[in-house]
Structure formats: C-alpha cells, structure tokens
C-alpha cells in the first residue's frame, strides 16, 4: 500500500521519558521536546535530541518510531518550525487529514508506539 | 517600587483576556518560552512593567514568582501547562481553547494572538471594559 521507505529527512533518539509522557496515550497523542525543555514541560514529554529537518515535512512521508511505520496524514503549520527550533511537536495517532492543532503532526491510527530511552524517531521521505 | 501594570488584549482572531498584569514584590519576573527569535512583545512588556524577562529555556524561576509566561504554542502543551499552574499566559500565536489541556485555557488566565499593539500601560484596575479587540 505504502511506498517503500526511503531517505530519512529527520532522525533523532529519545534521551529521557517524562513521568507523565505516557499519559497522553489516553488521547492517542505523544509529545516530543528537545533537551532544553523547561522543567514545567519535561514531565509531559519524550525528550529528544534536536536535529535538523532536511526537507519540508509532507503527507507523502512516514513517521518511523523504532520499527513501526506510520503514514503522515496532516502536518500542522508550526510543525516544521517547532521541530527545527525546539525539537517540539505533538504526534496525534488519529489519522486526521486536517491539522486542527498547528503544532501537531497527524499520523495514521495504529498501535500506539512504546518508546523508551534510546528509541529512534525518523521521518522518512 | 518602579513596577507598573499593563493590560494585554487578544489580537484579531485570538482568544481570551484581557489580562491585567500587575508586578508585585513576589512576582516581578516573567518568562518567555518561545522557539527561535525572542518575540518583540517580550521587550515591550519588560519596558512597560519594569519586570525582568527570563528565557525559560535557560533559567527556571519558581512558579509563584512568575508573573507571566510568554509562549508561541501551536496548541498542545505550553498553552495549557502554564494556565494549569495558575500562571498568566500570553501566546503570540492565535491558538484558542484547544489541545489535551484545553480545560485550563480560560480567558482569566490566557490571551492569544498578541503582538506589541495589544499591550498597553494600565492603572492596574480591572474595570476597564472598553475592549477594542474584535470578538
């Protein structure tokens, strides 16, 4: 159904898992934030290394978390900027095709991924 | 003391407010937690109020000493976390009552789509009901 995975335009690793990060699974969402995340936000987030984003993120791409691949279905207007500057986006596993929240990346509804320290997150063109 | 109050209204298409921010002996610093460039409103708020602006990514200050949080949040986390803590929150983006923490985003604590024109000196009273912003 999907094209074979190609080149990664973004790749990072989870370096810390906030105490309440998993709570957002109740609404099929997870939140990423770069290492600089203030204390007030850290507990809600999966903390990642901030890495460059090599190309504009589109719905033709896939999000890959470890070995799990999710088709991107909508890209909020702030996703590119926030991921680049802060390492901060939310990922919604709802398959919505319109981006209701500007800072959120929407991907196909699927099994909610289990992320731990060392998990790899990629965006594949 | 030299601190002064300000009034912050929502910009066109924004949500919430107006907020009156009155610095006190305990709360006379504000944080900005924004990506990329420091928003122009940070400097205006510092100038009008006399408060110290603190980069929230570099320095943390206790919640009960935080007079205000300036954010550029696209609707998920920052726009809800700071109001949840009871901290007055100003979003430079037009984000409304949205996201997983939407219940905490209230007009008493939160105002959005704020640029320099939405920030004015105030006498600190909350009776100013002449809302020039559009609804």
List keywords for this structure.
heterodimer, A: 125 residues, mainly beta, B: 135 residues, alpha/beta, 5-stranded parallel sheet, 3-stranded antiparallel sheet, 13% helix, globular, disordered C terminus
Please characterize this protein's 3D structure:
The complex is a heterodimer of chains A (125) and B (135). Chain A is mostly beta strands and 125 residues long. Chain A is 10% helix and 35% strand. Chain A has an eight-stranded mixed barrel with strand order 1-3-2-6-7-5-4-8. In chain A, strand 4 (62-65) and strand 5 (68-75) form a beta hairpin. The mean pLDDT of chain A is 94. Chain B is 13% helix and 24% strand. Chain B is built from two helices and eight strands; from the N terminus they run E-E-E-H-E-E-H-E-E-E. Chain B has helices spanning 40-49, 78-84; strands at 5-8, 19-21, 29-33, 52-55, 66-71, 89-91, 110-112, 119-122. In chain B, strand 3, helix 1 (40-49) and strand 4 (52-55) form a beta-alpha-beta unit. The longest helix of chain B has 10 residues, at 40-49. At the A-B interface, strand 2, helix 1 and helix 2 of A face helix 2 of B.
Count of β-strands of chain B: 8
Termini separation of chain A comes to: 15 Å
Mean pLDDT of chain A: 94
Strand content of chain B: 15-25%
Weakly predicted, low-confidence segments of chain B:
128-135
Going across the major beta sheet of chain B, what is the strand order? 4-3-5-6-7
Helix run count of chain B:
2
Assembly state of the chains shown? heterodimer
Helices and strands of chain A, in order, run as: EEHEEEHEEE
Q: What's the SSE pattern of chain B?
A: EEEHEEHEEE
Describe the sheet with the most strands of chain A: 8 strands, mixed, barrel
Form type of chain A: globular
Please give the radius of gyration of chain B in angstroms: 13 Å
Unreliable spans of chain A: none
Task: Tell me the strand order in the biggest sheet of chain A.
Answer: 1-3-2-6-7-5-4-8
Global Rg of chain A? 13 Å
Number of helices of chain A: 2
């Amino acid at each position: 159904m999907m094209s074979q995975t190609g080149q990664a335009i973004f790749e990072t690793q989870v370096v810390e898992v906030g105490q309440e990060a998993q709570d957002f699974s109740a609404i099929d969402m997870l939140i990423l934030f770069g290492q600089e995340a203030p204390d007030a936000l850290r507990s809600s987030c999966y903390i990642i290394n901030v890495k460059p984003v090599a190309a504009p993120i589109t719905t033709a791409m896939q999000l890959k978390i470890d070995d799990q691949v999710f088709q991107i279905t909508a890209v909020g207007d702030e996703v590119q900027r926030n991921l680049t500057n802060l390492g901060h986006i939310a990922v919604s596993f709802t398959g919505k095709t319109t981006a209701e929240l500007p800072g959120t990346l929407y991907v196909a509804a699927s099994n909610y991924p289990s992320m731990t320290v060392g998990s790899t997150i990629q965006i594949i063109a | 003391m030299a601190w002064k109050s300000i009034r912050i209204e929502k910009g066109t298409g924004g949500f919430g407010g107006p907020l009156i921010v009155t610095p006190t002996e305990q709360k006379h610093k504000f944080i900005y937690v924004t990506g990329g460039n420091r928003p122009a409103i940070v400097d205006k708020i510092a100038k009008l109020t006399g408060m110290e602006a603190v980069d929230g990514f570099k320095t943390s200050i206790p919640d009960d000493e935080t007079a205000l949080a300036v954010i550029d949040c696209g609707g998920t986390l920052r726009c809800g976390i700071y109001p949840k803590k009871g901290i007055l929150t100003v979003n430079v983006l037009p984000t409304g009552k949205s996201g997983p923490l939407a219940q905490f985003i209230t007009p008493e604590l939160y105002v959005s789509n704020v640029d320099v024109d939405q920030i004015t000196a105030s006498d600190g009273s909350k009776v100013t009901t002449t809302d020039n912003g559009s609804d």
